[in-house]
Structure formats: C-alpha cells, structure tokens
Amino acid sequence: MRIVIAGAGIGGLAAALSLHAAGFTDVTVHERADVLRPLGVGLNLLPHAVRELTELGLGDRIARLGTAPGTLAYYNRHGQPIWSEPRGREAGYRWPQLSVHRGRLQMELLAAVRERLGDVVHTGHRLLTVPTDAGSQGCRDAALGACFATGDGELTVAADLVIGADGIGSALRRQWYPDEGAPVWNGLTLWRGTARAPGFLDGRTMIMAGDAEQKFVAYPIGNGEINFIAERRTRGYAGENADWNRAVDPAPIIDLFRDWRFPWLDVPGLVAAAGEILEYPMVDRDPVGRWTHGPATLLGDAAHPMYPNGSNGASQAVLDARTLAFQLAGKPLDEALAAYEADRRPATTALVLSNRRQGPEQVMVLAHERAPDGFAHIHDVLTPDELTEIATGYKKAAGFHPDALNNRPSLSVAG
Ligand SMILES: Cc1cc2nc3c(=O)[nH]c(=O)nc-3n(C[C@H](O)[C@H](O)[C@H](O)COP(=O)(O)OP(=O)(O)OC[C@H]3O[C@@H](n4cnc5c(N)ncnc54)[C@H](O)[C@@H]3O)c2cc1C
C-alpha cells in the first residue's frame, strides 16, 4: 500500500515510524516548510505517549532529550500551595512523563524516520488538495493521491491512503470543512519561552500558579532550561493569529507578572531571562463528526486541535499514529480507517471539551474565587474531598488512570 503523509510535525513523523514498524514500506512524508528546524518551546509527553514511543524503540532516545517530572503542583497567584500530585512513574505508570523541547523531539523523530525509512521526507511540499469525492478542487489529473504546491509548481503524488497530519491549519480538513474558519479563541493569550535558569523546588516539578484570569506554568525540559507559559485574559479577537512562531517584546509580559516573585520562583526574572517570547492565542476547534473521506483521513492537530493547557496535543498525535498503523496492519483499508476513527475520535473529542472546562485547573479557579487575597491554609477554602474529586475526576474522564494504561494490550504489530 502506498501511503502519503502531509505534515512532518510530531504526528506525521510518528505516523511514518508507526507505519514502518507495522510493516508498511511505501510511505512518504511531505512537509510545507522548506527546511525542518527545531521550532517551538517545551511540551509534555504523557505516559501513554511515552509507552508508544518506547514500543517503537525510541524510549531512551526521547528520555535523553528532556526531564521526567515527578510532581505537578498548583499554586495561587501569591505563590501559596493549593494541590500537588505525583506524575509519571511516581503516579504508578509503567512509563514516565517527559518534558521536552518540541523542536528537539521533532528532530529526533525525523532522524529516526531517515534511519529506518530512508530519504522519504520531502520538504517544500504544501498540501493543496486530496481528490476524494468530497469537495475536491484543483489537481484534477490526480485520480487518487495528493496534490502539493512546490517551488517547481504543482506535484501530484499517487497514493492508496493520504494522511492529513498538517496541523491546526490543515488543508485537508479545510477541504472537507470549508466554512470552519479560523480557530476558536477563548480570550486567553499565551506567551511561551525557555530560559537557562536555576532549577526550582526539587528540580523535577511542573508548577501552575494563578487563576482563570492570569496564570504561569513552568517546568524544566533538560539542558539546564526551564520552559514557561505566561497566560492572561486579553481583549479583542486573536483567533486568526494561531501562528506558533510569533515573537513579541517581553517587556509588557514582565510587567504583567512583576509582583509574582515567590520564595521558590522569580517569575518576572525567568521571563526576562528568556531568549525569545512567542505569543499564541489559546485556540482549538470544535470537534468534527468525521475525519475520513474515502482513502484519506486526519491525524493529530488536523483532526482534533486542543488547548495546549492539557499537555496533550503531542501525546494524542502519537496515539493516533500508533492506532492508525495498528488498524491498517490488521484490516482492509476502509475497515481500518473506520476502526481508527471509532477509537480515536470520541476519545479526543472528550479531551477537547474537557480542556475547555479547565480540567484539574479548577482547583486554582475555586481557590481564587473563595480567597482572592490568599489563605492561611488551603483547607480553609477548599476541602480535601473537593480537591481530590477535581483531580481524580479529570483523570477518569480523560482515561488517564494508571491501571488502564498499564494493562492495555500493546499497539505493536506482532511479527
Ligand atoms: C512550528 C511549531 C511550533 C510549535 N510549538 C509548540 C510548543 O512550543 N508547545 C506546544 O505544546 N505545541 C507546539 N506546537 C504544536 C504541537 O507540535 C502540536 O500540537 C502537537 O505536537 C501535534 O502535532 P501535529 O503533528 O498534529 O501538528 P504540528 O506539530 O503542528 O505539525 C504539523 C506539520 O504540518 C506542516 N504543515 C502545515 N500545513 C501543511 C500543508 N498544507 N502541507 C504540508 N505540511 C503542512 C507544518 O509545517 C508542521 O510541520 C507547535 C507546532 C508547530 C508547527
């Protein structure tokens, strides 16, 4: 089977590796960018994604890129502790959570694709259309395949299956949902950066401080770097600015957080130490009712863009890739695509919606509502039962229970 993947992000590269491991040998990846560079800042791979990368034989390589957080801790905007919980192995998973630089992860996956599949990643290829029955335009000579814009004009690549892993602005998704428009914005703006800075707390803790109006997230990502996301409710409409690489002046952000100097973390100092600040609106898209049309399907952010606050975008793309390859190895094409979508679409739809409800960060929202000026002890404002219920409720809803992951059969294809 000839398989064409559009997009060499985390999802597209994970799909190429998963398909190869499942026995597919005729796979090419076509990326819009002329050159693949290690773009982005930090992201988290949750244990369910680390399991899949480990079963692809990449566990050690990925682990070397970053750090494995052992704790997630929530604070109010005064730096007072609200709740903390173990993460990764410390939480009972057989696989760690890993905090890594997105660009370094992408380059490692790219290197693995080249080692295993050869020279199959083609840059400077921007997907235009896939002539399936629904909404095809242009490239009419392509009976079945994918049509790309290249520096030398249009190129049609024949395929039995096209996978749209082309991110939040997916061309394939737009072909099927032409009226969808810009991503949906929730009014929050994120400023992301990394800084070489001393570790904080025990050096393996991811922290979230603040409330629904203003928040700061920080965690180490290896290499002596701390990744951070500063977040603030802003005015106007910014949904169309969903560009991951928009650099902005750090001065106003440092000013916004000028009072956030905690005994355990100097927030304005950390922002000031960053080489570059990237602005991104907190956007996602409404879940769609169908990912597959004919022999073409969506994967990763193209299928289910979600708020980055759930730390799940890259992880879910990896899970999509492994599930799709597993189904394709065991079933005829149309049945495999149906089984892939039946598994992954409801699961990711639930996550998109759950991230909109702020998931476990509700503890910060409630603490702020009940004690905006701070508290002597968190149990004066939130009972232990309330705290536990919010934390475990999200994990159950999102299917994160350690037992579920630890005992699930592998998605590796035998033989
Ligand atoms: C440059 C960049 C920086 C990012 N930085 C961060 C970050 O710091 N933190 C974070 O949590 N998430 C970041 N993300 C998003 C994160 O990588 C994804 O949410 C997640 O990994 C899911 O991966 P994906 O492969 O589905 O999408 P993406 O990682 O977005 O990859 C999509 C790929 O498709 C390519 N592409 C787009 N349109 C076309 C087209 N028409 N034809 C061919 N190729 C196309 C893009 O150039 C990109 O390489 C970033 C994404 C990008 C593209």
Automatic annotation (TrEMBL):
Kindly indicate whether the keyword Metal-binding belongs to this entry: no
Q: Which UniProt keywords apply?
A: Monooxygenase, Oxidoreductase, Signal
Which top-rank group of organisms is this from? Answer: Bacteria
Q: Which Pfam families match?
A: FAD_binding_3 (PF01494)
Stretch forming the signal peptide: 1-21
Entry protein name: Flavin-dependent oxidoreductase
Limits of the FAD-binding domain: 3-175, 289-352
